[in-house]
């Protein structure tokens, strides 16, 4: 009985450690990290939970606090001294890293987020393209109650309907950072201004990393190519230009890509098999659908080839995961060539692209 | 045992003195020939009309001429002429008192040490009404009353087999309450019957006012979940009898006891068996859900908003945070405050006379639902939490279950406030340990679940079609287990 009582009492030793009233915590939904002169600049966006917020003003002004410090933790505690509530990071959903810190290396930032127990590891991570994270977090958003929700919504929708951006979660970033034969990427975000000087946020092209350092940004076309190869695209639109300078609009639906590898004479070949259904959205009748199909296939093939070439030539960073595929399937080859993969052997990889498109609705409207 | 005083005057004086000269004691002396006869009865519990019409008239008419009346003559005359079902010959003074106070009319004869008792009870009860505490939509509408015989009759009317045994005992030194132990002899477990009889025999108490007294005296285990169910419905009692359970009915209360009662019985109503089985399965799942909701909702709300904020989606958390903004109390205090207010409201609604009752509920509704929220004392979400909790607990007709749920709800709330979801899980384990260790008359309280019995699942959470419910509960019925012969469709 005594033993049981001691055992039972031990259940309560944890105490009220985690106790914190909701009223006393400031829910941090988005966080920006940048670095100036070796000092971290951390900006946080807090969700406005006060009832008296002016509902007439539908452009909700975000609450953003900024703090600096030699470490991330120091910067965050500096913010805490400014805010009347305790920062609560458990619902952090978005982290924006500045271009400066990204180019200098994200390993320390990543380390902080991995170590911090309060933070859920499933937040979206974006790199600021041209602006500082603080500026981005300060842009008011009309549609959604809390500003970061706007960004998150854009990332998700943009990546699912257009295939030009990727909703990269922190965990995926860390995985790509640590896995052999693959380098991480990150979607970028920038501020665009319209004629009335109203600021708006736009998800833009993919940032390429090598290890933890940002190398540059892919353009939209190459991002699409990247997403075709890595099977991140579901639906997208492709525009073809005919000889007579007419445009044909194609919708690609349910695209699927499978990657296989072969090794001949110690030179690996990556076989990219893409199958998808397509729809002709706009067509002026210059070509019949079979011709359009061939044109589209060629266009996608060209897109993919261009992307691969550009990555090889400009960045020498295997963000496509070719090395990872070899690591998984051709391990003996990988073990011999894994050193200096990005700068050397990755450039020699040959690719073979097979594209298989089907029509969803292959009827000709005009001819019945 | 005292002999009856042969001197009539002395005897009458003694009876009068023993009753403290009660005003309702009626003594009428008649002289027949040279014999003095006295009729003694309480005019409040004995029907005066009947005594006048039958006994006194008969005495006047039939015994008028005889000169030397013996007691036997008088007894024979009365026995043959008076239309009363129950005539008793009494030998002792104690028996006179006993019958007198039970509503009998006593005929005393001078110079005799014997007396005669007629059953002339006045009917002091209401008629058979529909039960007020267990209402159903489809099914019989009659309910038990305060009259022992009527209650027994309501059961006999449903079971016409001679195997329905009714044993009577008198409990209570002062009240001498009639306690009837009913069981179906060829189904019920004899050991259980003997155990119940033994426990009732062991009771030594001055008064039994309601079956609640008896229940507490024969229930062995202390547990806030009632292991004996009380019901106002004869159909429910009959169903219990047919399961091999024992039904105890008492005089002066419309609540019969069902022994033993399992945990799952509180999730069943008699109406479950009058409706389509598939629909009832859904309702039963809802009842189990309501049970869980009514115990855990405030605890979960407090745990999620104070300890485990990361367990809820951001949108919901923001919603909670916005609503809690400006509320001066911690979530735990807020919840406790609302729960206490609700209980006060409920209690006052029950106790207040029906004239003022509606005012209480309207006022309470406005104060809790609206004013408290706009004054910023409680958050709107807490009103929702407490309302859903309270409404869920009212799914159960048994007030005992509602009270038990309330106790556990507060304990869960305290654990949640201290330890968060971790605390809820710890207490959840203790809760399961607790209710599975309850025994009801030697049978496991949580029967078809723990210990698990696959066959009995047919009528636990789900209710299968009546054609599939072949067997009685094997824990309570020991004989004639088969309920239904195979039906060929």
Which terms summarize this structure?
heterodimer; A: 368 residues; alpha/beta; GMP Synthetase, Chain A, domain 3; nine-stranded mixed sheet; 12 helices; globular; B: alpha+beta; 3 domains; five-stranded antiparallel sheet; 15 helices; 13% strand
Residue share in helices of chain B?
A: 40-55%
Radius of gyration of chain B: 30 Å
Largest interface: A-B, 26 and 24 residues
Task: Figure out the total of helices of chain A.
Answer: 12
In the predicted model, the low-confidence regions of chain B spanning at least 5 consecutive residues are none
By secondary-structure content and strand pairing, the structural class of chain A works out as alpha/beta
Spatial gap, N to C terminus of chain B: 67 Å
Overall strand count of chain B: 12
Strand content of chain A: 25-35%
The average pLDDT value of chain A, as a whole number, equals: 84
Distance between the termini of chain A: 87 Å
Largest sheet of chain A: 9 strands, mixed
- Count the domains of chain B: 3
Strand order of the largest sheet of chain B: 1-2-4-5-3
Helix content of chain A: 25-40%
Number of helices of chain B: 15
Structural class of chain B: alpha+beta
Low-confidence stretches of chain A: none
Beta-strand percentage range of chain B: 5-15%
Count every beta strand of chain A, where a strand is a DSSP E run of 2 or more residues. Answer: 13
């Amino acid at each position: 009985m005594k033993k049981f009582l001691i055992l039972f009492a031990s259940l309560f030793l944890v105490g009220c450690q985690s106790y914190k009233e909701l009223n006393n915590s400031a829910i941090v939904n988005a966080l920006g990290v940048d670095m100036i002169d070796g000092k971290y600049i951390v900006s946080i966006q807090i969700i406005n939970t006060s009832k008296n917020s002016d509902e007439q003003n539908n452009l909700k002004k975000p609450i953003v606090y900024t703090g600096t410090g030699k470490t991330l933790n120091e910067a965050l505690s500096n913010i805490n001294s400014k805010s009347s509530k305790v920062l609560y990071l458990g619902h952090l959903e978005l982290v924006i890293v500045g271009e400066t810190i990204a180019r200098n290396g994200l390993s320390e930032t990543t380390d902080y987020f991995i170590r911090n127990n309060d933070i859920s590891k499933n937040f979206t991570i974006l790199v600021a393209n041209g602006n500082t994270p603080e500026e981005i977090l300060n842009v008011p958003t009309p549609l959604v109650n809390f500003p970061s929700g706007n960004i998150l919504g854009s990332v998700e929708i943009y990546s699912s309907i257009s295939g030009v951006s990727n909703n990269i979660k922190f965990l995926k970033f860390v995985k790509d950072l640590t896995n052999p034969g693959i380098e991480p990427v990150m979607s970028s975000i920038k501020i665009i201004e319209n004629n009335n000087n109203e600021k708006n946020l736009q998800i833009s092209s993919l940032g390429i990393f090598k290890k933890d350092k940002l190398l540059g940004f892919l353009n939209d076309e190459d991002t699409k190519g990247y997403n075709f190869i890595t099977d991140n695209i579901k639906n997208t639109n492709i525009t073809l230009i005919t000889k007579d300078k007419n445009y044909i609009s194609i919708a690609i639906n349910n695209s699927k890509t499978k990657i296989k590898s072969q090794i001949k004479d110690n030179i690996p070949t990556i076989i990219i098999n893409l199958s998808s259904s397509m729809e002709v959205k706009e067509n002026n009748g210059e070509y019949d659908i079979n011709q359009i199909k061939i044109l589209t296939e060629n266009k996608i093939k060209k897109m993919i080839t261009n992307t691969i070439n550009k990555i090889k030539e400009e960045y020498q960073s295997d963000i496509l995961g070719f090395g990872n595929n070899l690591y998984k399937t051709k391990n003996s080859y990988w073990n011999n060539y894994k050193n200096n993969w990005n700068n050397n052997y990755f450039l020699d990889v040959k690719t073979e692209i097979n594209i298989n498109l089907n029509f969803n609705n292959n009827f000709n409207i005009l001819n019945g | 045992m005292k002999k009856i005083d042969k001197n009539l005057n002395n005897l009458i004086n003694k009876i009068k003195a023993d009753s403290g000269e009660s005003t309702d004691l009626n003594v009428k002396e008649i002289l027949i020939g040279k014999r003095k006869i006295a009729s003694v009865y309480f005019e409040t519990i004995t029907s005066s009309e009947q005594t006048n019409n039958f006994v006194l008239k008969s005495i006047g008419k039939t015994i008028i001429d005889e000169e030397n009346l013996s007691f036997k003559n008088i007894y024979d005359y009365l026995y043959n002429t008076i239309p009363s079902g129950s005539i008793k010959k009494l030998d002792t003074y104690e028996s006179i008192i006993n019958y007198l106070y039970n509503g009998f009319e006593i005929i005393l004869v001078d110079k005799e040490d014997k007396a005669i008792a007629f059953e002339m009870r006045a009917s002091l009860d209401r008629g058979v009404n529909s039960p007020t505490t267990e209402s159903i939509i489809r099914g019989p509408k009659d309910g038990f009353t305060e009259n022992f015989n009527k209650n027994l009759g309501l059961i006999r009317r449903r079971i016409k087999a001679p195997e329905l045994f009714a044993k009577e005992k008198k409990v209570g030194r002062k009240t001498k309450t009639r306690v009837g132990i009913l069981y179906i002899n060829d189904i019920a477990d004899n050991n259980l019957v003997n155990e119940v009889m033994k426990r009732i025999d062991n009771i030594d108490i001055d008064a039994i006012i309601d079956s609640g007294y008896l229940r507490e005296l024969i229930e062995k285990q202390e547990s806030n979940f009632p292991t004996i169910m009380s019901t106002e419905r004869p159909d429910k009692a009959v169903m219990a009898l047919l399961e091999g359970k024992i039904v105890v009915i008492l005089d002066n209360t419309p609540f019969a006891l069902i022994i033993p009662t399992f945990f799952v019985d509180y999730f069943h109503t008699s109406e479950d068996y009058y409706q389509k089985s598939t629909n009832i399965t859904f309702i039963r799942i809802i009842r189990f859900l309501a049970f869980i909701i009514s115990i855990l909702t405030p605890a979960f709300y407090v745990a999620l908003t104070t300890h485990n904020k990361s367990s809820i989606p951001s949108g919901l958390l923001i919603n909670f945070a916005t609503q809690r903004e400006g509320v001066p109390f911690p979530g735990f205090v807020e919840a406790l405050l609302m729960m206490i207010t609700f209980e006060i409201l409920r209690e006052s609604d029950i106790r207040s006379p029906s004239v003022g009752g509606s005012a209480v509920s309207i006022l309470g509704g406005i104060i809790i639902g609206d004013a408290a929220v706009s004054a910023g004392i409680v958050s709107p979400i807490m009103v929702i939490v407490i309302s859903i909790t309270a409404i869920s607990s009212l799914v159960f007709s048994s007030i005992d279950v509602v009270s038990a749920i309330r106790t556990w709800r507060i304990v869960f709330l305290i654990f949640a406030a201290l330890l968060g979801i971790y605390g809820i899980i710890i207490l959840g384990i203790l809760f399961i340990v607790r209710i599975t260790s309850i025994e009801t008359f030697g049978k496991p309280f949580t029967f078809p679940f723990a210990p698990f019995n696959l066959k009995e699942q047919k009528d636990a959470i789900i209710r299968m079609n009546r054609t599939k419910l072949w067997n009685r509960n094997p824990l309570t019925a020991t004989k004639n287990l088969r309920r239904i012969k195979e039906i060929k469709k």
